Amino acid sequence: MSRPARIGLVLGGGGLVGHAWHVGVLAGIAETTGWSACSAALVVGTSAGAVVGAELRCGLHPAELLAPGAGAAPSEVPRPVLGPRSYRPATATMVVRGLRRPRQASLGLVAAGLLPRGRRDAAIITDAVAGLAPGGLPWPPGLWVCATRLHDGERVVLRAGTWSDLGQAVAASCAMAGFFAPVPIAGHDHVDGGARSVTNADVVAGEDLDLVVVSSPMSLGAGGGRRPTGLAARAAHRRRLGHGARLAREVAQVRRQGTPVVVVEPGPDDVAVMGGCGASMDFERRSAVGRQARFTAVHRFTSTPLAEVAAVLASAASPGRPRSASGLAVP
Q: For the CA atoms of 45, 108, 294, 287, what is the dihedral angle to 10 degrees?
């Protein structure tokens, strides 16, 4: 008898709106297949995805996280920390490196170097994650948190055995350049893991997984829809398409290793609810985004193209009915 399918879960960045997207998507998947993301063999989280990953590993079901105030998502914008405002770039080294190797550096990395160091204390995230387990939170197995080392722009994947403070790691992964103060880990300052890639899906390439589910709130799926009107809307549209192109390269790398991947990303109807780039920290949108994301996931995972994927997830939810995902074709 074959073993139950090992499911990997990649959760991208996206602020408070991205957190709501993840929760809605995962609740919809659970509703249609019976598979709970809490049981994923490996969870890779970036920024908002790192918060959701910590919540899942602490045993919070996605349906629970749909409730207002549940989990570790902040409920208020943190105030600036004390200290003088600076207009100096956070690090010139990363800017120079990005300009010398433009094909390897994302705009996020260059921006993270150019923007001044943020003045808001990321401890609001550290404390919220620690509050998930008041008696003490050891690093849960099967959780990887992606951050960006500030001085050189290198991706750092924090996991059990490499760092022990989960709250600090998640805060580093969420430390948006120019907004939050960088978070020190192992003697180096770190900022948002999304500065390099909003998904970092390629880190699961070559892992012993039968299927990888990617939830990507900041990209745009299914051809991108019509080009919107208005300068700001067009800029946000291009930004989403750029994130989608990078994600496609990462997914191709995972698939070349023989692992099927299914990507859940917003379509035009979802983006209309989520808002533009500046709405990622809009507290008022969270409930509507969660409902919309749940609807989208239910629709997708009950559709014919994803019938086999849904069956694999259902089998993973029912250990008595193991099913291999070998050879699975994912659109």
A: 100
Q: How confident is the model at residue 329 (pLDDT cuts 50, 70, 90)?
A: low
pTM here is 0.91
**CA–CA distance, 194 with 48 (Å, rounded to integer):** 9
Angle at 312 between CA 326 and CA 294, to 5 degrees: 135
CA 24 – CA 301 distance, rounded (Å): 13
Asked if the model's pLDDT at residue 213 lies above 50, the reply is yes
Find out whether 217 and 12 touch, Cβ atoms under 8 Å. Answer: yes
9 has pLDDT over 60: yes
Residue 322: the pLDDT is: 45
pLDDT level of residue 1 (50, 70, 90 thresholds): very low
The Cα 75–Cα 77 span in angstroms is 7
